[in-house]
Amino acid sequence: MEDYHLTQSDFERWFSTQESCIEYLIKVRWPQGPRCPKCQGTRLWRYGMTLKCSGCRASFRLLAGTMFQDSHLSLVDWFRIMWFISNQKFGLTAMELHKSLGISYSTGWNILRKLRKAMVPAGGELLTGTVEVDEAFIGGLIDGAKGDSKTSNQVLVVMAAELDGKSIGRVRVQQIPSATEENLFDFIRSSLKIGTTVITDGWMGYQGLGNNGYLHKVKIMNQEKKALPNIHKMVTLMKRWLLGSLKKFPNKEYLDYYLDEYTFRFNHRRAIMGGQMFLRLVEKALITPPLMREDIRARNIEEQKLFFELPMSNQDIPLF
Ligand SMILES: [Zn+2]
Fold first, then answer.
1. Which of 23, 32, 111, 258 has its CA 20 to 30 A from that of 180?
2. Angle, to 10 degrees, between the axis of helix 105-118 and the axis of helix 252-267?
3. How many whole angstroms from 60 Cα to the centroid of ligand 1?
4. What's the 68 CA to ligand 1 centre distance in angstroms?
5. 309 and 98 in contact (C-beta within 8 Å)?
6. How far from each other are the two terminal CA atoms of the chain, in whole angstroms?
7. 212-231 pLDDT, tens per residue?
8. φ and ψ at residue 218, rounded to 5 degrees
9. Which residues have beta carbons under 5 A from ligand 1 (an ion)?
10. DSSP bridge pairs for 158
11. Which helix (H) or strand (E) holds 271?
């Protein structure tokens, strides 16, 4: 859809009924009109949530293979939640969804899990041009503030920030166990297009970049802060966002979900209020398969953790 300037009243007008949500999903999924997955025929009839091909007689469910498959929530509710999330600066917790939209806590928890899965960057969205890459430790401090005696919650992440003139373009972040050449290369290969100019510090883990299809520039200064200013800005923003969203530092096990959400939000930061993030979320939800069993596995632990969130007052920090 081309309209990237959805307002609150547009949203309410357009997506107030199950039928209007279905019609919209069909348009997003098949911009040229629905096609039969078997014979590619274009003469299809819809019966509720099922499409039937008049050519080969095959019938298929409209939402099969998407995140909305088998959900007990109505599409109107799904759309309300996605709209709500898209208009928040911070990430949301299930408790906030419950309080703001009246969605039950456990449903809210599952929905957030699914939507974060939809926020994972797709392979085709590789960073390009000139990109700063660096590692940083995050966490620890926030847990300490909670009075937690365990201070080893520091996590190493590797980050990439695309340079867009004087500001930051798109970003990628990922947790890594250590800053070995292998871990760094895995991240770079899955995040940056071959041929990209990569700026790093002098760490030996990056030394092979030039022989692997990238243009490697090393910046060494006494103060690393000055060498890679964009990455450092990003670390600060990311820590602030995690703290503002979760009120505490997430467990290592769940950090990736939040990093994906952060990345998605950061990469859509200029359009959050214009509805573009909502539209992207709908598109991604349509190509993200339903949640698998292992995704649900850890649910109870996380649920308990969220109930013990600390209150937080600085909701108004400018983020991006
Ligand atoms: Zn057919």
1. 258
2. 60
3. 10
4. 23
5. no
6. 26
7. 999 999 987 765 556 788 88
8. -105, 135
9. 36, 38-39, 41, 53, 55-56, 58
10. 135, 174
11. none
